[in-house]
Amino acid sequence: MFCYQCQETAQGKGCTKMGVCGKTSDVAHLQDLMIYTLKGISILGLKADEIGLKMPNLDRFLIEGLFMTITNANFDKDRFIEKIKEALKLREELKGNLREKGVSLDDLHDAATWNINSDDDIELKANSPLVGVLATENEDVRSLRELITYGVKGMAAYAEHAMNLGYEDEEISKFIRKALAATLDNSLTADELVALTLETGKYGVDTMALLDKANTSAYGNPEITEVNIGVRNNPAILISGHDLKDLEELLEQTKGTGVDVYTHGEMLPAHYYPAFKKYDNFVGNYGNAWWKQREEFEKFNGPILFTTNCIVPPSASYSDRVYTTGSSGYPGFKHIPDRVNGQSKDFSQIIEHAKKLPGPIEIETGKIVGGFAHAQVFALADKVVEAVKTGAIKKFFVMAGCDGRMKSRDYYTEFASKLPKDTVILTAGCAKYKYNKLSLGDIGGIPRVLDAGQCNDSYSLAVIALKLKEIFELNDINELPIAYNIAWYEQKAVIVLLALLHLGVKNIHLGPTLPAFLSPNVAKVLVETFGIGTISNVEDDMKMFLGA
Ligand code: SF4
Ligand code: SF3
């Protein structure tokens, strides 16, 4: 296997025997084959797009398939084998439709033609040197192809959530096909791939905007909210991941059952939406970011529901009470099937399971505050602008992104706690858990940590920045007193980064390390064009950011 798609990749180079994340070599190969096959389908999909031929299910299939390969989303070998078989079936149907329309299918790439006689052929093919990251020999081309692929994976994740709420954009789906097909096109130059990378960022913005519209139309605009981090005595379900539609259905089905619902990790921001406040059994947030799940799930006592990444291989003490749904999966976990014909998912099994188990053990008490997405910040705009004008706020620090298990990420806790008192942190994603429980105080009633929401709500931070640029009548977003010190882990952070670059944001610092998939030359382009940098130590970085 060879995988270097996340920040925790082995030795900062690539996982070759087993993923640091726990992904086994056979699953890694199957994920590569999944992506390879989706790329083949995309080549055909582009031909269909050219003649305006529509294929029902194609968009959803591509989006789900991509999402399943995101770091920590799905470790279930059998589900990948099934999905690849479905992919081959869909691909052949698509070919049939194209042939009917007289489209020539000569000289297709192997990704669009390989096939199987039996299930064993899938694993054989998955191990072929033609499939996977190292199939591209030139390291710069490989780097750009992977950068685009990872960006598209992140985009697909956000597109799926939007789709679950009934929001789709054909242009985004077409771009996904174009981008995936392009990563197999040997005629493209490095410059063309760089251009495509930046275009990926444009569609990243569009996808996050679409998801923002989907979430806020369905559940209202996030508002300032105090979230309880303590517990009650009732049996309870812990829901993790990013999918708000799953949460809504779970809350509806647990209503009046005596079973409480708590959020974990990236589901915390759900509490900020007005629509979820009507559920008396929606108690609070339990625990921290994804990587602490082993100890926290152990103590939670009740069943846990994963709606997306990030899953950590479980310990035996709780594995029988973990459920997955949607694109997430893990061998041995119970999987709650998808919606059929627009009906809700059926969460009765997990609810019945919860009833038999004791309530959670309290691991902390108190409250955390969040809900500072664009509409809420706009409502406070006068106050914020005044604070900037009087110098009460000297600088904003965007510290969005991901958390992770590496010790080096303690940097972010230290950085947040040492920031001068006249600075405000803007955050989104699970990166916030590094400092959202510190007492950093407020500036004239404005908390010093403003949490916009999930990683996709980094879009909100960009909207806020653009609004401030307008209010202060600046020509360039980079003239604002905003510094970017972003932590990344998986591929959603890649699309967030590309989206920020598309919006013209410069001098983003990305840590705790730069992606292993950036070759020296590709990294150089990003440094020279966008001033991308990484982090060193808190003291030096503080001086650098504050210009002292
Ligand atoms: Fe390694 Fe990350 Fe890939 Fe897992 S997702 S195999 S940790 S690079
Ligand atoms: Fe977190 Fe996985 Fe990236 Fe959505 S849940 S930000 S790491």
Automatic annotation (TrEMBL):
Its EC number is 1.7.99.1. Keywords: 4Fe-4S, Cytoplasm, Iron, Iron-sulfur, Metal-binding, Oxidoreductase. Binds 1 [4Fe-4S] cluster. It is found in: Cytoplasm. Hybrid [4Fe-2O-2S] cluster binds at H242, E266, C310, C402, C430, C455, E490, K492. It catalyses: A + NH4(+) + H2O = hydroxylamine + AH2 + H(+). InterPro entries: HCP/CODH (IPR004137), Hydroxylam_reduct (IPR010048). Pfam families: Prismane. Its cofactor is [4Fe-4S] cluster; hybrid [4Fe-2O-2S] cluster. Its main location: cytoplasm. GO terms for molecular function: hydroxylamine reductase activity. The keyword Oxidoreductase applies. [4Fe-4S] cluster binds at C3, C6, C15, C21. It is an enzyme of class 1 (oxidoreductase). The keyword tRNA-binding does not apply. The modification Cysteine persulfide is found at C402. Belongs to the HCP family. Catalyzes the reduction of hydroxylamine to form NH(3) and H(2)O. PANTHER family: HYDROXYLAMINE REDUCTASE. This is Hydroxylamine reductase. It comes from Tissierella simiarum. The lineage of its organism: Bacteria, Bacillati, Bacillota, Tissierellia, Tissierellales.
